[in-house]
Each structure stands twice: as C-alpha cells, then as structure tokens.
Amino acid sequence: MSTKKTLILNKEQIKQKSRRIAYQILEDNFEEKAIVLVGIADRGYVFAQRLQNILLEIAPEKEIQLIKVTIEKNKRNLEADTDTPVDIAKNSVVIIVDDVLNSGRTLAYALGVFINVPLKKMRTAVLIDRSHHIFPIFSDYYGTKLSTILKEHVEVVLEEFDKEEDAAWLS
C-alpha cells in the first residue's frame, strides 16, 4: 500500500461542508419540531455532535437529540449498543451520521438498530461518500463524493477524537 497521502478536505473545508449538510437537513425537515441524530462511534458520533451544534445555532427552536451507536463492525451479525434508549426516536425523523460511507455495511447495521421503532423517516449523512456500495445504502446528505479504487483508504481526522487538526486524507 502506498505511503503517499493526499489531502481531500482541510479543516476549513470540513467546517464548510458540515454547515452545508446542517442546512440541507434543516431544509429537508423544516416542518419538524425535533430531529434525532444518530452518530456511529467514534468519528461519526463526533461529526453528529458537530451537526447538532450547528443545527442548534441556526434553528434554536428545534429539538435536536443525539444518540451514540456503537457497532461491532467485524461481526457477521448485528451487534450494537446505544447510549440512549432508541425509543426516543419513536415517530421522529432520524438521521444516521458517519464520517465515511464505503460499502454501506456500517450504515446498514445502524439502520438495523431502529428496525422495530416506528419512524417518520430515516436519512443518512456522511462527510465523505466513497461510492463503493455493496449494500443498497446511499447518502442523503454528504460533504463530498469521491471516486476511489478499492485499495485506497480514506482517513478522516477529527480534532475532538484524534487530537489533531481536522482533515480528510486519501492514501
């Protein structure tokens, strides 16, 4: 594997794309009083926290709830835990948030957590969509779509989690 890293998004671009995604979520759900963001641990949750903060800033009248879902990505069966009971999403708009969409497996697992919860609608939001979908999962809101080869790796660095300046790298 190549050791060369190419910068995809810098700190300012991540900030701009995050704001744009928040505005798209707001526009798509302008009639809703509440929205539930479901962040996939770890970086997806950090990204969901950022979206929550932006949404509360631009639409303080809305209730923006946050659920953290931790998924065992290497298991063949769905194994997931949440930090909040999923019933708070009942009859609400739910947006599953992750940093990178690659095959769609992680988002599919996160969707599965809510399979028995009656929802108004469910959407997905990602910072980077790699377009290598194996599962029929697509991003409703995304920062950037990126055509890559399967051998390439996309790494998102978020300051709150990685203790380094925000960036997205292709290697």
TrEMBL record:
Organism: Sphingobacterium olei
Residue ranges of domain Phosphoribosyltransferase in the record: 8-147
Keyword Transferase listed: yes
Recorded GO MF terms: glycosyltransferase activity
Keywords: Glycosyltransferase, Transferase
Key word ATP-binding present: no
Protein name, per record: Phosphoribosyltransferase
A Pfam entry, by short name: Pribosyltran
Cross-referenced InterPro entries: PRTase-like (IPR029057), PRTase_dom (IPR000836), PyrR_bifunctional (IPR050137)
SUPFAM superfamilies documented for this protein: PRTase-like
Annotated coiled-coil segments of the chain: none
